[in-house]
Design goal:
alpha+beta, wza like fold, three-stranded antiparallel sheet, 10 strands, 28% strand
């Protein structure tokens, strides 16, 4: 009887293990639920193709529609021009300086409104628009200067907008300066293989050096 009891106990333990494995999904007949992987393109949202985040040098227009106790609740509208300075800030009446660089126009609108209401106004409706964006081309091109930026501007298009290279240009070492970063591109190789053309961003400076030969 004792031996039979031990055998029955082993069977009971074995059945319990099988049941536990089946419930946990470790058995051969059960496929564990796949984990939801983060999309590979999730990080791409940081690099905004429409360049809608404000940056140093951006010229913006701020439209304020406000009402206060002094005006008896009547609304008044005002358009304030501003430039994002080297610290990424703009200057506004009453609230002095406010951070603008790195924000979208809608984010800046909310920040301005939060600074005005209720401290200065009962109500305040804010709209921020980017007036213009530019890039710069200098060195051995025929028409150095500042040019209006658009989303389709590339290095070769920028050079063409500046009248193309001079006869003394070093086309193999064209510099693109973006903030504190500088890259060097071979414009002749890009011309032969247009798929390698480099997008230009607002505020970029392109410098074409003089050839030594």
């Amino acid at each position: 009887m004792k031996l039979k009891f031990l055998e029955n106990s082993k069977v009971a333990v074995w059945l319990a293990l099988v049941l536990a494995v089946s419930v946990s999904g470790w058995g051969c007949g059960t496929t564990p639920a796949p984990r939801t992987a983060a999309p590979e393109t999730a990080g791409a949202a940081v690099e905004n193709p429409t360049e809608n985040r404000l940056r140093v040098g951006d010229i913006i227009e701020i439209r304020l529609v406000t009402s206060s106790s002094h005006t008896g609740g009547q609304a008044s509208a005002e358009i304030i021009p501003a430039v994002v300075d080297e610290n990424g800030e703009i200057s506004l009446p009453l609230i002095e300086r406010i951070k603008a660089g790195g924000s979208t126009p809608s984010e800046l609108s909310e920040r301005i409104q939060a600074n005005y209401v209720p401290r200065y106004y009962v109500r305040c409706n804010v709209t921020v628009q980017v007036a213009a964006r530019f890039f710069y081309v200098g060195g051995e091109v025929r028409a150095s200067g500042r040019y209006a930026w658009s989303e389709d501007v590339t290095l070769l298009k920028a050079i063409n907008m500046a009248g193309s290279f001079t006869d003394y240009a070093n086309r193999a070492k064209v510099e693109i300066i973006r903030g504190k970063e500088k890259t060097t591109e071979n414009a002749e190789h890009i011309r032969q293989n247009p798929t390698r053309d480099v997008p230009i961003r607002p505020g970029d400076s392109i410098w074409v050096p003089r050839s030594m030969f």
